[in-house]
Design brief:
Length: 360
C-alpha cells in the first residue's frame, strides 16, 4: 500500500471517528492546516522534477479533494445530529401562554387609576384640572380660606410646619387641596369649573390615615350657581364612579371656615359581612365635605361676593379608592410592595374612559 493510500485511510478513519465539530476541526487542521500532512505534501510538489510532479500532483490533489469532501460530509452529519439532539431535548409546549413583556407586567397604582377615573367623569361634566404646590404658605392654606389667626380649626389639621425662613415665614405641607381654590380664583376669571386632585399631608397614622394622602377638591364659581347644582354633580359623580344606577345621598350640617353653609355628604350603602356596597341597603357612609364658598373667601380672591357665588367640595381619594376596590388598609398604598401592586394594580393600557368603562 502506498504512503498516500495509508495517509488517506488514516485521515478518513479519524474523520469518521470525530464525534463533534471540535474534534473534526482538529482532524482538518492536522491534514489541511498550515502544518498539516496534506499541506506538506502539496508544498513538496515544488521541489519535484516535472515528471515526478506530473505523476504525484494529481494523486496529492486527489487526496486533498477526497479529504475535503469527507470533512464536509462529516460536518453536515454532525450538525444534523446536534440539531436532532436539541430538538429532542428542548420541546416547545405551544399550549403555554405567551410570557408577558416587561412593559405589560407593570401595574398602575390604584390611586393613579382612581385619579384618572374621576378626571374622566368630571371632564365629561365640563371640569378642568387645576394644580398647586405641596409646600404652601400659611396664607393660602389657612388665612385666605377664612381661618382667622388663632382659630381652633387650624389646630384640627395636625399641620407639618417647616422651620421659619430668613423672613420668619413658616411654610407648611398643605393639609388639604383647598388652597388651590384660592390660587385658581386669583388667576382665572369666572365662570370657574375645576377639580383639584393632589397630595395632602397631616401628622396622623393608623389603618385609615397616612401622613401623606390624597384629596380631590371641586370648585365652581359663577353668577347663578347654587346648592342644587352641587347636589346634582355629586350624585352624577357617585353613580359614575361607583358604577351603580342610583345612589341615595343625604347631607348633614357641618362646619368649614371656607364655606357657608357647610355640609357633610353621606351615601347610602349596605354592610353585609364586612363588605360595603353602594346603591342598596339602609346604612350611610360619609364621603365628602362641601358647601357654598364663603363670601370672605370670594372677597380675598378679588371677586365681589354680590356678583359671584359658588360651591366647593373636598373628598379623600384614598378613601373612595378603598371603598370602590375593597381594600381594607390604607398603609400598603404607600409601602411599594410589588405583591400588593400586582394584586390591586391596573394594567397600563386599561385607560379609564366613560365610553370604554372606568374600571374594566
Ligand atoms: N378641605 C376640607 C378638609 O380637608 C374638605 C373640604 C370641605 C373641602 C368642604 C371643600 C369644602 O372644598 O367645601 O377637611
Amino acid at each position: 500500500m502506498s504512503d498516500l493510500t495509508t495517509l488517506q485511510q488514516t485521515i478518513l478513519t479519524a474523520i469518521t471517528d470525530a464525534t463533534d465539530e471540535a474534534a473534526l476541526e482538529s482532524v482538518r487542521i492536522a491534514a489541511l492546516g498550515k502544518a498539516g500532512s496534506i499541506s506538506a505534501l502539496l508544498k513538496s510538489l515544488g521541489g519535484m522534477s516535472p515528471d515526478e510532479r506530473k505523476e504525484k500532483g494529481p494523486q496529492i490533489n486527489g487526496l486533498r479533494d477526497i479529504v475535503n469532501d469527507a470533512l464536509l460530509a462529516r460536518r453536515t452529519a454532525l450538525k444534523d445530529q446536534a440539531l436532532n439532539a436539541r430538538l429532542q431535548s428542548e420541546r416547545a409546549d405551544v399550549s403555554l401562554p405567551v410570557p408577558e413583556s416587561m412593559a405589560a407586567r407593570g401595574r398602575i397604582h390604584p390611586i393613579s387609576q382612581v385619579i384618572d377615573e374621576l378626571t374622566a367623569i368630571f371632564a365629561d361634566m365640563g371640569f378642568a384640572v387645576a394644580e398647586g404646590p405641596d409646600i404652601e404658605t400659611d396664607f393660602y392654606n389657612f388665612t385666605a380660606l377664612n381661618f382667622p389667626v388663632g382659630h381652633p380649626a387650624r389646630e384640627m389639621h395636625d399641620t407639618f410646619f417647616f422651620s421659619p425662613d430668613a423672613q420668619g415665614e413658616r411654610k407648611l405641607l398643605r393639609t388639604h387641596t383647598s388652597p388651590v381654590q384660592i390660587r385658581t380664583m386669583m388667576t382665572q376669571k369666572p365662570p370657574i369649573r375645576v377639580i383639584i386632585p393632589g397630595r395632602t399631608y397631616r401628622c396622623d397614622s393608623d389603618q385609615t390615615h397616612t401622613p401623606m394622602f390624597h384629596q380631590v377638591e371641586g370648585l365652581v364659581i359663577d353668577k347663578g350657581s347654587h346648592l342644587g347644582h352641587l347636589k346634582w354633580i355629586l350624585a352624577e359623580f357617585c353613580k359614575a364612579f361607583f358604577e351603580v344606577d342610583d345612589v341615595k345621598m343625604r347631607s348633614r350640617p357641618s362646619f368649614f371656615p371656607f364655606t357657608e353653609p357647610s355640609m357633610e355628604v353621606d351615601i347610602q350603602c349596605s354592610r353585609k359581612g364586612g363588605e360595603i356596597r353602594f346603591g342598596e341597603g339602609e346604612d350611610w357612609l360619609e364621603i365628602l365635605g362641601c358647601g357654598m364658598v364663603h363670601p370672605n373667601v370670594i372677597r380675598h380672591c378679588g371677586l365681589d361676593p354680590d356678583d359671584y357665588q359658588g360651591f366647593a367640595w373636598g373628598m379623600g381619594i384614598d378613601r373612595i379608592a378603598m371603598l370602590k376596590y375593597g381594600m381594607p388598609d390604607l398603609r400598603p398604598f404607600f409601602e411599594a410592595d410589588i405583591r400588593w401592586l400586582s394584586h390591586y394594580g391596573f394594567r397600563p393600557l386599561d385607560l379609564p374612559t366613560l365610553a370604554g368603562g372606568l374600571s374594566v
